[in-house]
Amino acid sequence: MADSNTETANTWSLLWFRSRDDMTPFINDTAVRIRAGIMLAIPIFMAFTLWDIVFGSRWIVTGEVIKDTFELDFDNRILYMVEAVRRTYDYTVQTWLLFYALFEMLAGMSVRTAYLSPTIWLSTLLARRARPVWKPLAPKRFAWTIGASMISVCLVFFHPEKFAAAVNFIFQSQVLPTTEQYLPRWLPLVMVWVCLGFMWMETVLGFCLGCEVHALLVKLGIFQDECEACNNLDFGQPR
């Protein structure tokens, strides 16, 4: 019983980290995969939202009467007269979800801030009975940086006027327009699906593409050799 209580105490004091004495932090990849599965709900929701924005109807029919104009368009389709309004979107829920996802990406990058993440606590709880698989934090940090960048682009897409106003204020010039959407409509949709694919591979296959890119950059000498595992595309054997 005492050993069990000690193990539980160590789990909560270290969370998914191997040791506080590691010069290069190592985290439990089992918990990381569980966390990716939890966070997967956000890009799924955002993918459906952006699909509706890009490919959904831009008009809402408000009237109950649809009148035939007895005219045809160039494709010989019948033209009707209706009462309709331009569709508008409220991105409040999406914005808060994206800010939370951004917080999660940033919180996981540091040993100190990791304790602020609810999903890290939850994933640690769910992984406590599974055999830990230790992998370096540095490649994961690089992968989460990519994720944070994608989230930031989506936030700009939802609030282009606010971002443009901030940029124009910093440069004291009209760098970006404040009255129109300057990002391509397809860009955030593609990025969300890419993010969804990355997280699915992490959760289901245990394959971290961002980590592999990080390891490749270490091989090329673009990043410094932080640890032996960071310089190994296969990350070696679980420790």
TrEMBL record:
<feature type="transmembrane region" description="Helical">
    <location>
        <begin position="186"/>
        <end position="209"/>
    </location>
</feature>
<feature type="transmembrane region" description="Helical">
    <location>
        <begin position="38"/>
        <end position="61"/>
    </location>
</feature>
<keyword id="KW-0472">Membrane</keyword>
<dbReference type="InterPro" id="IPR025508">
    <property type="entry name" value="DUF4395"/>
</dbReference>
<feature type="domain" description="DUF4395">
    <location>
        <begin position="28"/>
        <end position="218"/>
    </location>
</feature>
<protein>
    <recommendedName>
        <fullName>DUF4395 domain-containing protein</fullName>
    </recommendedName>
</protein>
<keyword id="KW-0812">Transmembrane</keyword>
<feature type="transmembrane region" description="Helical">
    <location>
        <begin position="142"/>
        <end position="159"/>
    </location>
</feature>
<dbReference type="Pfam" id="PF14340">
    <property type="entry name" value="DUF4395"/>
</dbReference>
<keyword id="KW-1133">Transmembrane helix</keyword>
<feature type="transmembrane region" description="Helical">
    <location>
        <begin position="97"/>
        <end position="122"/>
    </location>
</feature>
